[in-house]
From TrEMBL:
Source organism: Ornithinibacillus halophilus
Intracellular proteinase inhibitor BsuPI domain mapped to chain residues: 77-171
Coiled coil: 25-52
Protein name: Intracellular proteinase inhibitor
Lineage: Bacteria, Bacillati, Bacillota, Bacilli, Bacillales
Alphabetized UniProt keyword annotations: Coiled coil, Membrane, Transmembrane, Transmembrane helix
InterPro entries: Intracell_prot_inh_BsuPI (IPR020481), IPI (IPR038144)
Chain segments annotated as transmembrane: 7-25
Length: 185
């Protein structure tokens, strides 16, 4: 008799637990459904508000793109030449257009110099180990004017290298210039 009562009690407990689990699952899915509906309503509201905002926005300023764009640029000539000594180089950007051109710098660094050995391995980078101030600076080059930077080679082993200089201005992708150099000892 005790076994039968224990069995009946176990069955009743399993049924009660099942009913509770079913109730929790149904109640959770109802809450999830309500939350999903609230999220959808919020999305629709935000989209509707943004549509209204864009309809009301007045754009009064005429769009005038900067003159300096892309890698090729007809407004400038770029040169990198050896000067008075075998370790001194002059990097020059000249405005050959008929309008002033503005270069946008974001730090006090004006150019980057990279030297690679014959195998293409980088052996020197001008900015390595240096700190530059975070300052915004626009440099305007008038028609016919040029911007020149002098660069001195670091101590290198004898061999053949490539020297690449480029401006670090935000809008100066065109400014990269690479030459081959030979270091003799």
């Amino acid at each position: 008799m005790k076994k039968r009562a224990t069995l009946i009690l176990s069955i009743v407990l399993v049924i009660i637990a099942s009913v509770i689990i079913i109730y929790i699952v149904q109640h959770s899915s109802e809450q999830a459904s309500e939350q999903e509906q609230e999220v959808e309503e919020f999305k629709e509201k935000v989209l509707e508000e943004n549509k209204e905002m864009f309809k009301r926005r007045d754009i009064k300023k005429k769009f005038e793109p900067k003159s300096i764009k892309g890698i090729e640029n007809e407004n400038f000539t770029v040169s990198l030449e050896s000067k008075s000594s075998p370790t001194a180089y002059e990097y020059t950007i000249q405005n050959v257009s008929d309008k002033p051109q503005t270069l946008e710098f974001t730090t006090s660094q004006r150019y980057e110099a990279i030297i690679n050995d014959e195998k293409g391995k980088e052996v020197y980078r001008y900015s390595d180990g240096k700190s530059f101030m975070q300052v915004l600076k626009d440099v305007t080059i008038n028609p016919g004017d040029e911007l020149t930077y002098e660069f001195k080679l670091p101590e290198l082993e004898a061999g053949k290298y490539t020297l690449t200089l480029r401006l670090v201005a935000r809008n100066a992708l065109f400014s990269k210039k690479t030459i081959n150099i030979t270091v003799e000892k």
